């Protein structure tokens, strides 16, 4: 079943066309990767899915229902999150002066039941023990990798059905990035969360994914199973340094 269906969308910033006629889909239970160079439009696409940037044309459906349209009947970001989509934004956007625990509370903004919030937090501390050990510490005292884990945990507080990750490995050491991707794999397999991730680290992203898309200058130029893209000559030349 298709979880997310992006139908021929275009997005502009003033006179700059950032996405042109992009169509893609994410099947339920999959990890799907979008790879592309800096400036290709990857963040724009994720931001469009959660309603942070408007569509010029096209439509985005979640579980068969439109969530973003080019006209006015678009859901707000708040409603999109409530429907079960969570975004871990590029650069993490953690609240540096808040503690780890306060950051997780922010991710639970739509949950009213305090005992559920407490249970979700305990789940996160079990899954990311370093966060449990640091829950009363200010986020700025965490390493970059720990902050990325916290940003992911914060997104998981809302029990999303679809998790969007914008360059989870950005600026982190290779071993830490591998750790984060291992966690993403577990979130997908054990918690049955569908994952759509955007990465410049194409090799790791495609190795981790069931399916992948290549975005160049706002257009999808290639799509295939992750392993096929890894063996694709154009992908190897442009993105894998082969
Ligand atoms: N807020 C903005 N205002 C104007 N142009 C933007 C804005 N955000 C992104 N762009 C432009 O849109 C294009 C795609 O950017 P982006 O989606 O951030 O790419 P990526 O995430 O792949 O690096 C780039 O040319 C970028 O300069
Ligand atoms: Mg980006």
Provide an overview of this structure.
The chain is α/β, with parallel strands linked by helices. It folds into two domains: 1-84 and 163-176 and 194-242, 3-Layer(aba) Sandwich (Rossmann fold); 91-159, no CATH class. The protein is built from ten helices and ten strands. It has helices spanning 42-49, 77-83, 100-107, 114-127, 129-133, 144-156, 174-190, 202-208, 226-230, 233-239, and strands at residues 2-13, 16-27, 31-35, 57-62, 65-69, 85-88, 162-166, 194-199, 211-216, 219-225. The radius of gyration is 17 Å and the shape is globular. The model has no long low-confidence stretch (mean pLDDT 94). It binds adenosine-5'-diphosphate (ADP) and magnesium ion (MG).
